[in-house]
Amino acid sequence: QVQLVESGGGLVQTGGSLRLSCAGSGTMLSMQGIGWHRQAPGKRRELVAAISRGGSTNYGDSVMGRFTISRDNAKNTVYLQMNSLKPEDTAVYYCNIVGGPYWGKGTLVTVSS
After folding, report:
1. How far from each other are the two terminal CA atoms of the chain, in whole angstroms?
2. Mean pLDDT computed over every residue of the chain
3. DSSP class per residue in 36-87
4. Cα separation of 52 and 50, whole Å?
5. What is the distance between the alpha carbons of residues 111 and 39, in angstroms, rounded to a whole number?
6. Do 63 and 49 meet the contact criterion of CB atoms below 8 Å apart?
7. Which of 90, 41, 44 is nearest to 63 (CA)?
């Protein structure tokens, strides 16, 4: 059974940093494209960052230069390092396997002004 579990969310002040983790089980995340998405209250879910099987990355315009996606294959985990956080980054953050039906349950990030 494939499962993705996000962790690392919390409350942080503007300008602070957090690192989110997406831990996989039942599949090797190194063999998958993995995406990080977020959904703020009243807004549509949006792609934040993605990493391909080959390690190529892409980012949403709003997080370019502030967020970094990476993977640790030994830990079967994909990370999202978030720096220079802004109140508009407040959302529930989800990871998923690109093109597949598997999503985690999300982790809440709240950035206070």
Report:
1. 40
2. 96
3. EEEE-TTS--EEEEEE-TT--EEE-TTTTTTEEEEEEGGGTEEEEEE-S--G
4. 7
5. 14
6. yes
7. 90
CB 74 within 8 A of CB 100: no
Kindly list the distances between the CA atom of residue 46 and the CA atoms of 36, 61, 67, in Å, as whole numbers in the listed order: 9, 11, 14
DSSP state of 89: G
Residue 48 one-letter amino acid? V
Structure tokens at 52: 């391909």
C-alpha 36: how far from chain center: 3
pLDDT for res 100: 86
Dihedral, 48, 63, 7, 3 alpha carbons, nearest 10: 20
Residue range 51-60: average pLDDT? 96
- 42-54 as b/e, with b when 16 or more CB fall inside 10 Å? eeeeeebbbbeee
